[in-house]
Amino acid sequence: MSSGSASRPFSTTSHVHPSHLPTLYKSGRLEKKIATATVAVVGIGYGVSKYKEFQEQRQYYTAEAAAASRRQSEVMMDAYADRSSLAELEAAVQAYETHRKN
User: Fold this and answer.
1) 65 φ, ψ to 5°?
2) What is the DSSP string of 23-59?
3) Measured between alpha carbons, how far is 46 from 8 in angstroms, rounded to an integer?
4) Within a domain: residue 86?
5) Average pLDDT over residues 53-74
6) pLDDT range class, residue 24, cuts 50, 70, 90
7) Which residue intervals are annotated with compositional bias (Polar residues) in the record (predicted)?
8) Residue at 12 is within a domain
9) Confidence (pTM)
């Protein structure tokens, strides 16, 4: 190299960062939108699953109450019998009185 060769002059107008960095700053907006949408979908999914669980529990308790009512009706029908005799009629009245007191 010769000492007389001209060196490249330093310029402050040259780009400091590569040209792809401004697009990375803009991509943060997209990531925020995706994160917000993901949180919303997860929240909705959780709410739907809790709602379905609540509905199943309610249906179970309703079925249990209906079964208990049916059992009670069967017990009362057995207690009252067909009342074809005086003894069965007295037993039916006695069963009704004890049931009414409870």
Assistant:
1) -65, -40
2) HHHHHHHHHHHHHHHHHHHHHHHHHHHHHHHHHHHHH
3) 64
4) yes
5) 90
6) low
7) 1-16
8) no
9) 0.44
